[in-house]
Amino acid sequence: MCFLLRTSAEEGDESLAVDPARVARYGPRNTTSVGTAAGAYYTMLGNTALTDRDDRAARELRRPFLPFTTHDGEVNIADRVTRYNRDYLGRVVRYFASQGIRQVLDIGCGLPAYGNVHEIVGEALSEGERAAVVYVDYERIVVDRWRDHLEGHNRHPGLDVAVVHADMRQPDSVLTDPVTTRLLDFSQPVLLLMISLLQYIHPEDGCYELVEQYTAPLAPGSVFALSHGTGDNLPDDMRAPFYELKLAYEEYIAENFTLRVEPQVRRFFGTWPLVPPGLVRLQDWRPGEPGYVPDTRDPARHIMYGGAAVKPEPGPNARS
Ligand SMILES: C[S@@+](CC[C@H](N)C(=O)[O-])C[C@H]1O[C@@H](n2cnc3c(N)ncnc32)[C@H](O)[C@@H]1O
Fold first, then answer.
1. pLDDT of residue 241
2. What value, to the nearest 5°, has the Cα angle with vertex 81 and ends 76 and 86?
3. Average pLDDT over residues 166-177
4. Is the pLDDT of residue 17 over 70?
């Protein structure tokens, strides 16, 4: 596993590299020795931890950050940014569903929680309409939980939903999985989601080329949306806590963790034009509240970028 905390435009600061023996092998997996990113995230959204390991991981991810006071009372930055991310996911899906997107490929979907993608898509459907959502994650517990969840909950009759157990770093295993090919029609627009996923993909895994393998087969009008952790503009007093966060990842979660600066995050979109407001802090992406004013004193607002771009018709500016 390798953790990189960068504020320059270049990736690969080996001074923060962690024990390479912890590099996760490729392929779907069933992590039982430490917590999972999925489980810690789920816990930090306010749910009861599924395992003691996830509970421990969530506590250790919070530990470096002092609580701060908001109108909601005392909150921890790590919990706060987790909620910002989940709320951003909801706004992205709601917006593009309102624009007519009816197919979603959600990679690194995490555990079922509040504001699930298929529920939001289902709310946008009229009678007789059809839509499909394919969830993908490489943790066994996520896939098992999704299967139970989908069996146990009613949904819009026109909505097909399924989950694929696969590693994002093996695009063929996602794109040619029988579930994916049965549910998604790649000749029609698809909303491709990589929300809080790409910071777990190491530069040495060819992160940009990997993303291109997903965007290339998509039809014009498709959308690629991401959120991504960053060290950009971190206040000085946040540097030491971020180093401690790296140690917590090393010890308690079986994941790579790479923060990227704005140009590096932007590069994932290739030549696709970004939908307004562009690549911005999560809370500033179509906040939906009339009169919204960003709270620039909120320390949690610095930590993640969000943005979405639409695949253009083939032409001189099209990437693929
Ligand atoms: C922080 S959670 C985000 C969950 C959800 N996307 C959201 O934003 O609410 C990241 C998820 O990505 C998954 N993940 C990390 N690396 C992955 C990979 N290489 N392939 C598939 N899933 C991966 C983790 O298992 C975890 O469920």
1. 86
2. 130
3. 97
4. no
Nearest-atom number in ligand 1 for the CA of 256 is 16
pLDDT tens digits, 273-299: 999 999 999 999 999 877 777 777 787
DSSP single-letter state for residue 29 = B
CA 161 to ligand 1 center in whole angstroms = 18
CA quadruple 266, 269, 273, 276: dihedral, nearest 10: -60
Taking only the tens place, the pLDDT of each residue in 87-145 is 999 999 999 999 999 999 999 999 999 999 999 999 999 999 999 999 999 999 999 99
Please tell me the distance from the alpha carbon of residue 226 to that of residue 278, in angstroms, as a whole number.
11
Handedness of CA 239, 6, 111, 277 (dihedral sign): positive
Residue 178: count of CB within 10 angstroms of its CB: 9
What value does the CA radius of gyration of the chain take, rounded to a whole number of Å?
19
d(CA 83, CA 122) in angstroms, rounded, equals: 22
Q: Which three-class secondary structure state does DSSP give residue 288?
A: coil
Distance 315 CA to ligand 1 centre (A): 33
Of 56, 55, 31, nearest in space to 138 by CA: 31
3-state DSSP of 128-193 = CCCEEEEEEECEHHHHHHHHHHHHHCCCCCCEEEEEEECCCCCHHHHHCCHHHHHHCCCCCCCEEE
Q: Which residues line ligand 1 (CB under 6 A)?
A: 36-38, 41, 85-86, 89, 108-110, 137-139, 142, 167-169, 195-197, 200
Domains of the chain: 3-286+298-310 (3.40.50.150)
CB 158 within 8 A of CB 51: no
Cβ pair 277, 284 in contact under 8 A: yes
CA of 36 to the centre of ligand 1 (A): 9
